[in-house]
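Sharing in case it's useful to others searching the archive later.

Someone asked me privately for the predicted structure of Glycosyl transferase family 2, so I'm posting the question and my answer publicly. Question first, with the sequence:
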Amino acid sequence: MKKIHVGFLLSYDYELLKHAIPPVYEASDRIFIAIDENLITWSGNKFEVSPSFFEWLKEFDKDNKIELYYDNFYVPSLTTTQMDTRERKMLSDKMGIGNWLIQVDSDEYFIDFEGFVKQLRKYDHYLDNPEKNKIQIAAFWIIIYKYTDKGILYVDKPMKSIFATNYPNYKAFRRTNERVIYLDSLVLHESVARSEEQLRYKLKNWSHNTHVNDSFLDKWLKVDENNYKEFQDFYYIEPDRWKTLDYFPTKDIQEINELSKKSKKLKLTKTFLFFKNFGQWFKFLFK
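And my answer, the predicted structure tokens:
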């Protein structure tokens, strides 16, 4: 109990796990990877996994802490959103209530997972009786919008996202309706940063497939490092949620990490985090 358990969902973009797993490996006690036993996406499409991926996984897992969890995650009577939420619940149940249940998507790369865990450990008392002390833990995305020839376009302000909980009563995706504790932690999120072919496939097969607005893809195709300041409102559901973009002149993850630390727009100040957490504490004070 009170272990750091990290879960991933494996699907058509499984190759990205080679980038997502290494940042969390050392600070995790155990890592679980959920795989549909019939290799079917939530949209009902078949996908294949190259044997070379499992060979990489076996070679990488030097401490023997990665467990593959096969189950039936495709239910035709459910929506893609419902299947997403259901699979995450099943995965967290497998990971074991009484531990920190952290779920990371294949296109999310923690900048400092050890720092995230160190902050998380301050709240271990919430693991003593999880059902009566439900909590969820948020970090902040740096959303990579698009790769260009020499760098990346990214949403120019951190966006909150839930990553952990002590009790997985998920209501939508990995979110519960419980109190949120915000940590000073950044996560690179590739989100819609794909090749055009990969993006079109993702838009048809992910859990947001019915939510994408009509203007999103056309704008994504047009924007580049030279004209991005001429556009605004980039989010694929409610466009103005991603108001403006900025540019890093590199694709190297380590260089991006360093640049993000120097960016005033991406800095999570103590004052900002204090008021975010105070607001959540007060909101749930009498619940």
